[in-house]
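Crash report, auto-generated. Payload:
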Amino acid sequence: MDFEFSEKEEQLRKEIREFARREMAGRELITGLEEESRDEDWEFAMQMSRKLARKGWLTMAWPKEYGGRDASFFEQHVYMDEASYWGIPGMQMGVSGIGWVGQSLMLFGNDEQRKKYIPPIAAGEPDGVWCTAYSEPNAGSDFANIQTRAIRQGDEYVLNGQKIWTSCAHRARWCWLAVRTDVDVRKKQHGISLIIVDMRSPGITVKPIYNYAGVHIFNELFFDNVKVPVSNLVGTENRGWYQLMQSLAFERHSVAPQFYGTAKRILEIVIKYAARTKLHGRPLAADPLIRHKLAERAIELETLRLFGYEITWKLSKGQIPIYEAARNKAYCDFVMQRMAITGSEVTGAFSQVDMWSKWAKLDGAITRLYMMFPGMSIAAGTDEIQKNIVGQFKLGLPRPY
Amino acid sequence: MDFDLNEQQQMLKTMAGDFLAHEYSKARVKELEKDSLGYDPGTQAKMVELGWTGLIVPEKYGGSGAGLLDLVILVEEMGKNITPGPFFSTVALCALPLMKFGTERQKGTFLPAIAGGQSLWSLAITEESGRYDIRDINCRASLEGDGYLINGTKWFVQFAHAADYLIVLCRTGKEGELTTFIVNRKSPGVKVERIPTTAGDGQCKVRFNNVRVTARDVLGRIGKGSDLFNYSMQTGAILKCAEISGACQAVLDMTLAYAKERVQFDQPIGSFMAIQHKLVDMLTEVEGLQYMVYYAAWLLSSGRKALTSISMAKAKAAEVYQQICIDGIKIHGAIGFTMDHDIGCYFRRIKSAEFMLGGRDLYLSMVADGIGL
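Recovered output after restart:
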């Protein structure tokens, strides 16, 4: 048993910390995908993406030939955790490209696709910004239900249908699309394909969906006779579901360290706030109720940290964590929810002040977290879906649906 | 980074699990809850033969000099398979402080006897308040000739009726500073009464009426009894956490097995989402607790600062143990509420484990201190 990071990993942490202090001076904490909403935030995020790329961090896990540096799982862990702690914008770059498109192309794409699409992602360029179109109005948790069609006509696919909850579609240069290429199948998981779509194609309409906080992250995406060259098919036609399942694994190990980094930062600033804020002449930090609540949050956060380590350690030993990732996602959501609620109790009525207002406490971090956590818990699979996965794969219980 | 047990730990775990399941069936555990001694001396003797009482005792004192992590693995198995008896009080609560604070003479006298199974020990700290709180210590050791006279009452002392020696925390001197003493349990003036507890797990009330000890019986330095108090708060607490973690794993295992075999509405109840998600929540907490215990024990055993992590583990353990048992019983339904079923054995022990060495409030407060509040 040994829970220590190597010297190399600690050195990386130090470099990221120095980078963040220098580059983020005077910047507010961004806790997630809100950077996609306002133009000025997005612009800054893209500047940072390029800088992260130049540092060799943006896609550090990738092989050198694709613009990465063959970083170990533990190095990636440190990067995810530390960069999230500092809330460095641009580290996600719309999520898809860095999250799974690059690695999926390495696995299933052809040489031409790899040469064309991977370098801009690794360089942190706007041409490397992707959105992912999976969900549809009738295909949420039951995602194999998708109905958007691609019909082959000569050298082209003709796309028709509608996607929804498409994050970053309004910023993306390319779309990673799951689409039905065959309707005459025994199982609905068959007959799905992955196709790359140029977001500038005629017939595409992006319609913003504002979340209840007024933040623009996701969109509706309409395809009206959109023509795509057949060469944009990724991998094998009608095998998209299976390729996609494998690609989902890429984002697994990053969930816990990312959430952990963010949550750790928030807990720290809330603790500092409690220490310097007085109530009836006494610091809030001396109030037993506040102390106990924050101590409980710290314990949950510590649990999350160890869950993150566990996955990284298993990956480093060549294992493929399945249930662990689902467990971690559900636990992340639980941690964020409790942190948001306790944070709002500590900051009191100020927890409702607009996140971008000059009167917001803690740079609006608590308002932002509070407004965002229900959405984050639904993204990438709801709590219930995650727990079904754990029940099936770890506990060996019958599928309940 | 490495979450794995080493080969020796893996062997110890397997061997301990098999041995305990064989020696202490739940039927036997239930019998012993009503027994006047509360454990099986025959089994205790076999544990000595297996080298468990000397596991962490240094070789020069007749032990095998293993590390704290090894003891954590063993105690986790003892928690998984409820193991009645004075092992915990002797080894976790007394041998470790003796190793840390004992004089050469004390170590040379007492540790070989612990390792060899000739003597049993217990730790007497908690008093009338029922809490592990230094402010509540009133037991007094007054100077008398070349020694001390101890007067006072200690509560919830594990297996004091079977112990040969007690480590007793007392007030001494004008300022009432704290000092710990080694007291022969058979000394005149020591009166032990069993407290009838929910688990019948051998906890006692011990009265000291003019009990004479000498200066050579002081453990550690005079006036520095809080050192032992704080030390046990780390070593004792993390081992208690390991025991709880094992118990939680056992409750999860038996509940999961039941959810797979119990059929209602023509299907195993484990196929219902309401049951399944509860089991997943249980698993998450059990795994989280186990990692936290290992992590804190690793910090402590490698000489790093561990107090905050141990406090986190103890606060979490208290909560998780309780919740796992409640959910486990609910999933079992009415059968889980019977004496015949085994899950109650774990439920009956919740409060014993929770409050030994301090409850959740104490440790949450220590966590708060540790995170800068």
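Post-recovery validation: The longest strand of chain B covers residues 147-158.
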